[in-house]
Amino acid sequence: MKVKEVAELTGISVRTLHHYDEIGLLSPGRKAESGYREYTDEDLETLQQILFFRELGFPLKKIKDVLNSPSFDRREALLLQKKMLLEKRSRLDQMIELVEKTIQHAEGEIQMTNEEKFQGFDFSHNPYEKEARERWGDEAVDRSNAKLADMSVEERDAMAAKMNDIYRKLAGLRQGAPDSEEAQSAIKDWYDLLNNNFGSYSLEAFKGLGQMYVADERFTKNIDQFGEGLAEFMSKAMTIFADKTK
After folding, report:
1. Is the dihedral of CA 59, 60, 63, 64 positive or negative?
2. pTM value?
3. Cα(146)–Cα(37) distance, integer angstroms
4. Are 161 and 219 in contact (CB under 8 A)?
5. Which end of the chain has fewer CB atoms at under 10 Å, N or C?
6. Mean local confidence (pLDDT), 180-188
């Protein structure tokens, strides 16, 4: 199938399919006599996998890592995706029930306690996402956990103190330019700390981590405890550091 036909079949825009091709996530696997590249049935199966992962909130980079993992198994992925979707459906059902009760409360039909008003909200991490990460990659996570396990309590406390010192230093600089000498010096300290304590971070991985600071609200909330806007400032500074150091 040509890219336009795939777009019509799936409802995905041609532009999105071209983007998937450009980033190496999904490239048409067959070249037709006309010279145009065409999607095979296998490509369509891969696209379906991608869309399942997207529905579950996986970022494109993570999907690419999963699909390229030597241990990736399509049937196993489908079973895990089913688990994750059932979990998502269960959470949505709880939220719908909570909304219905809240409407009844607002109309005076029932009375809700403050505790009942917030039953159903769950901001915890999806347990199956952790399973997927461990199954299909994230070797850096494994190395990081191994390093932490080998540390004594004193070493962990010292590392935490260093992290907080860097956070506070950057928080004091966040109103300035992320490419300033002071900011870049502090970000280098952050880069060195991560590499010394959490495994080996390439410059590209360091840059990607910075992007996660603003893309994932859990990172943002944690970092911004040291000063509102710190996560965004660090993300920009980390990108500048990675690009300049290459």
Report:
1. negative
2. 0.47
3. 45
4. no
5. C
6. 96
Burial group, residue 190, by CB count within 10 angstroms (0-12, 13-18, 19+): buried
What number of residues does the chain have?
246
* Pairing between β-strand 30-31 and β-strand 37-38 as defined by DSSP bridges: antiparallel
For residue 236, the tally of other CB atoms under 10 A from its CB is: 20
Mean pLDDT to the nearest integer, 239-245: 93
Distances (CA, A) of 44 to 84, 168, 180, 220, 241: 22, 49, 47, 36, 39
CA pair distance 214, 200, nearest whole angstrom:
22
> What is the spatial distance between Cα 158 and Cα 196, in angstroms, rounded to a whole number?
13
Number of C-beta neighbours around residue 195 at 10 A = 13
CA distance 202 to 195: 9
Give the pLDDT confidence of 134-182 residue by residue, as tens digits: 554 455 455 555 666 666 778 778 888 899 999 999 999 999 999 999 9
Residue type at 77 in one-letter notation:
A
CA neighbours within 13 Å on the CB side: how many for 233?
25
Phi, psi of 72 (to 5 degrees): -65, 130
